[in-house]
Amino acid sequence: MQNSDLFDMFCHWLVAIRKYDFSHKESELVNEVNELISDIKVLELQPEYTLSECALDTGIEEETLLNWLKAIERKKQAIFYGPPGTGKTYVAKKLAKYLTGSSYGFVDIVQFHPAYTYEDFIQGIRPQRIDGELSYPLVNGRFLDFCDKACRHQDTCVLIIDEINRANVARVFGELMYLLEYRGEKMSLAAGEVFGIPANVRIIGTMNTADRSIACFDHALRRRFAFIPLYPNYDILRSYHSNTNFSVENLITILLKLNQAIANPHNSVGISFFLRADLADQIDSIWQLEIEPYLEEYFFDQPSKVQQFRWNEVKKQINL
Length: 320
Hints:
Order of helices and strands: HHHHEHEHEEEEHEHHEEEHEHHHHH
Strand order of the largest sheet: 2-7-10-1-11
Radius of gyration: 23 Å
Number of helices: 15
Structural class: alpha/beta
Mean pLDDT: 87
Shape: globular
């Protein structure tokens, strides 16, 4: 670690100490100091990860990745959306790795679900038993914890919110709705604490459009994020299997027919189901136990369409 990096870290810690409320109990102060020491111990330079490596890993052209990175830097937050099996989370992780490469930043991930709340993400009162007595302290949620840690780093830190559309996002975000649009400003949270998103924080979300359409996001929320579509990219499938013993062209033809029958890009069957080196041995199981149940649900009132894409029919066309 270089001297300049140590100096910047020291400045961050000094600011944190100056902001600390010393009216807190001694045990709480000890916990804060231990957290700082823990950050010092784990702080390490992230390995270099180039854009060309990212393009190779994701199968996406560098020019496209650069366009997405511009959007993330411009808006500070973006959402990858598309049907299942298009690699949204995988791409988000790789871009986060690129953004934090060769730096002292870090990446964290949280998954939203229908029961996820403001208290889970921002802050809320949590019952705790201390020394045999029940108390109700105000506890930071995942985002505030993430931002507290990001304040002690000088480089880009990325929070990935997986399945962001499965929660009531406006309710979970609360005052964050304002802060996402007006980066650099601060405002009082529900409990009274003044908070602002650190300048080095980036947010990348993923949403499965088969679960909930992008149209379900209100315009106030949509304009705060860059929305990046990910649909089945068959060139990635071709590239992946160029080094395996699986002839993929017949499979691609079937997927094209299947997605044409589905006739809704938000519900298309993606390619990540088939990105396996042992696909020749696994494809029958994948198709019968993962693809067919999805088709049965989607075509619940059109059983004849499902029959066209049963494994017994598909395997004849793949020529296994």
